[in-house]
């Protein structure tokens, strides 16, 4: 059934806010993108914008959820190659990388609005990567001696660590380094 009325308008406005916020943060960075700037860009007051999200932290968490949706829209089916593609894209949007890194640290606090997002995201990534590694071992594309769960955790840690290195030194080629690591896993 199609959603109608104020509810559908609210969903559409929320999606518009997230699309604009992705662009604002990508252009101005996490520190340079204020709630006021995002609100102005979508024609709302700050209070009006936060009506859709509850708080600044909930807004930023929703931005990361939207970023993941956008990043995963072009998946090819080869998760390892898709991961390298996404990391290469991240180099073009350092503000979003900074937002992700900052919120992931803050979300270590169980009371932070992004805590569940990051717990679920990392759990999902570990499970899916481990399964992809098992499949690669069966089809012969990945080395047979790898422990899938441990290797998945290492890939995620390497990806996050490369993002931190990139934020400190933008000459770090995150995608090339990740591709080299993943190349070591190939049979």
From TrEMBL:
Pfam families: TetR_C_6, TetR_N. PROSITE patterns: HTH_TETR_2. Signal peptide: none annotated. Residues 11-71 form the HTH tetR-type domain. The keyword Repressor applies. Residues 34-53 bind DNA. Keywords: DNA-binding, Repressor, Transcription, Transcription regulation. This is TetR family transcriptional regulator.
């Amino acid at each position: 059934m199609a959603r109608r009325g104020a509810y559908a308008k609210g969903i559409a406005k929320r999606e518009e806010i997230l699309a604009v916020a992705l662009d604002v943060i990508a252009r101005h960075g996490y520190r340079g993108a204020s709630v006021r700037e995002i609100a102005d860009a979508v024609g709302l007051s700050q209070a009006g914008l936060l009506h859709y999200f509850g708080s600044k932290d909930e807004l930023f968490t929703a931005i990361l959820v939207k970023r993941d949706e956008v990043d995963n829209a072009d998946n090819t089916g080869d998760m390892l190659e898709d991961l390298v593609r996404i990391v290469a894209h991240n180099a073009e949007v350092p503000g979003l990388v900074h937002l992700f890194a900052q919120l992931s640290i803050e979300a270590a606090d169980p009371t932070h609005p992004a805590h569940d997002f990051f717990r679920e995201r990392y759990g999902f990534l570990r499970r899916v990567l481990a399964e992809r590694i098992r499949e690669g071992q069966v089809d012969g594309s990945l080395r047979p001696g790898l422990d899938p769960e441990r290797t998945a955790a290492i890939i995620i840690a390497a990806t996050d660590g490369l993002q931190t290195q990139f934020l400190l030194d933008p000459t770090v080629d995150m995608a090339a380094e990740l591709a080299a690591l993943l190349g070591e896993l190939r049979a």
